[in-house]
Amino acid sequence: PYYVDMNQNLYLQASLHSSDQNLTVFVDTCVASPNSSDFTTLFYELTKSGCPSDPTYALFPSPRDDVVRFGFDAFSFLNRFPSVFLRCELVVCRHHDYSSRCYQGCVSRFKRNADS
């Protein structure tokens, strides 16, 4: 566990451990929940499909392509739950494969009306 005060900046780093030096990593989706085994009943989206959902979520420069750094302001669920758990989905791609998901960035999908 990592303890922070409310609204304190929380910084995270994910590293890819592989002998293949030609890989890069991308944060696709991060969801927070007060329950470590249930991220669907009560949850808060920090980012979805590479798009920030929380205004405090930010990506930060990283030293290498196989490392991703991001952060957000610490929060609680209605001040009733003592802990917040994170589940993040990361995507691994070939370095410099600009058609891959890692290089698409934020992908927002809008539903269209069947009439249009």
UniProtKB/TrEMBL annotation:
- Domain of life, per lineage: Eukaryota
Q: Which UniProt keywords apply?
A: Disulfide bond, Signal
Q: Mind telling me which Pfam families this protein's record contains?
A: Zona_pellucida
Q: Where is the ZP domain?
A: 1-109
Q: Does the keyword Transferase apply?
A: no
Name it: DMBT1 protein
Q: Per the UniProt entry, what species is this protein from, by scientific name?
A: Aegithalos caudatus
Write the gene name. Answer: Dmbt1_4
